[in-house]
Design a protein that fits this description.
The chain is mainly α. The protein is built from four helices and two strands. The longest helix is centred in the middle third of the chain and has 13 residues. The radius of gyration is 11 Å and the shape is globular.
């Protein structure tokens, strides 16, 4: 999910959920969990990674898990 949000900042949850074949409400619930952990930020429309989220994603990519 971090990669999806990083690749498509500002995109509505419904579009992101559709892109990965998920229903919107469960997808939004998962994004809220990321926000609670300080990994994403809500925009007027859509989301973006927070500085902490970018750091975590970078570490996941470096370890081959992202």
């Amino acid at each position: 999910m971090l990669e999806l949000i990083d690749d498509q900042p500002g995109v509505r949850a419904a579009e992101l959920a559709d892109h990965v074949g998920r229903e919107t409400q469960p997808f939004k619930a998962d994004v809220r969990k990321l926000k609670e952990r300080g990994l994403t930020e809500s925009l007027e429309t859509g989301y973006r990674l927070s500085p902490r989220g970018r750091l975590v994603l970078g570490r996941l990519r470096a370890s081959g898990r992202g």
